Every structure is written in structure tokens, then in C-alpha cells.
Amino acid sequence: MVVLMSACIFCQIVSGAIPAALVFKDRLTLAFLDHRPLFPGHCLLIPHQHVETLAEIAPPVLESVAANARLLALALETALAAQGAFVAINNRVSQSVPHLHIHVVPRRKGDGLKGFFWPRTKYKSSEEAESVAALLRSALTTEPGE
């Protein structure tokens, strides 16, 4: 059973209450053109089921979302002669619509999109990097909320 949230704009697109330029639809996912694209062809891929974050998505749905993000990235290259794709998820922070969605954006060399728009730094030492990696490895051994 697919649960939709009536106040969610993406759920309204899934239900057909709000029109969108649909690109792809299957049993679990839907892709449509972003109404404010970075470049023409910028798609949003969403699960039909209302989930806000990666932590909430069921693994079989996530598998379908990932496979379809791949298909969309390849379709952008074929249909729009893109040289590649930018594939991204904002998980809570900078998530303009609180419904999990993946941006699949066509890319070309010299298109003006300059990587990430925040300052990048280096680890102070290899020991610091290893300490952070160890913390992450430890967290990967338990499910969230355990």
C-alpha cells in the first residue's frame, strides 16, 4: 500500500492532483522534470511512497530508486547528448520538499556548474582521517535507532 501525504507537493504529483512533465513511471518510482532546472533535462526521481529521508526508505524501494537513477543518467546522455550526469540527494538539510528525491542533472564540460558550493578542507592528519573512518565503521554495524 502506498501512503501519500495530502500536503506534500510530490505526493500530489504522484496522485495526479498536480501536473508535472513526467519522464518515467514504474510501480515504485516516478521521475519528472524539475520546474526550476539547473539545465534542461534536470529530473527529480521520487518514490511513490511518502518518505522524507534515506533512513525511512525500505531497502527494496531504495534498490529501485538507485536503478532508476542510473537509467535516467544514461537517458540524459543519449537523449540530450550530455557528457555525464550529476546525481544528488539532499537529506534533510537543503531539502526543499520533505519527500525523498534524487536530482539527476545533465552535465557537459564547461557548463558552469562548479562542483560543490561550500568550502572544502583537508583532515589535519592521517590519524584524524582514520579516527573519523573508525567512527563511521562502528556506526555501520548498527541500524539507526538501535
Model description:
- The protein has 146 residues and is an alpha+beta fold.
- It has a single domain (9-121), classed as 2-Layer Sandwich (HIT family, subunit A).
- The protein contains three helices and five strands.
- It has a five-stranded antiparallel sheet with strand order 1-2-3-5-4, with helices on one face.
- It is globular.
- 21% of the residues are buried.
Short description:
This protein is 29% helix and 18% strand.
Please give the count of helices. 3
Supply the number of structural domains: 1
Provide the CATH top-level class: Alpha Beta
Along the chain, the helix and strand elements come as HEEEHEEH
Strand content: 15-25%
What is the terminal-to-terminal distance?
A: 26 Å
User: Which word captures the global form?
Assistant: globular
CATH topology: HIT family, subunit A
Q: Helix proportion of residues, in percent?
A: 25-40%
Spatial strand sequence of the major β-sheet: 1-2-3-5-4
Q: Output the structural class.
A: alpha+beta
**Uncertain residue segments:** none
Q: Please state the second-level CATH architecture.
A: 2-Layer Sandwich
What is the average of the pLDDT values? Answer: 87
Q: How big is the Rg? A: 17 Å
CATH superfamily: HIT-like
Give the helices and strands, then pairings.
Elements: H1 9-15, E1 22-25, E2 29-33, E3 43-47, H2 59-80, E4 84-89, E5 102-107, H3 126-139
Antiparallel strand pairs: 1-2, 2-3, 3-5, 4-5
Features:
146 residues, HIT family, subunit A, globular, alpha+beta, 18% strand
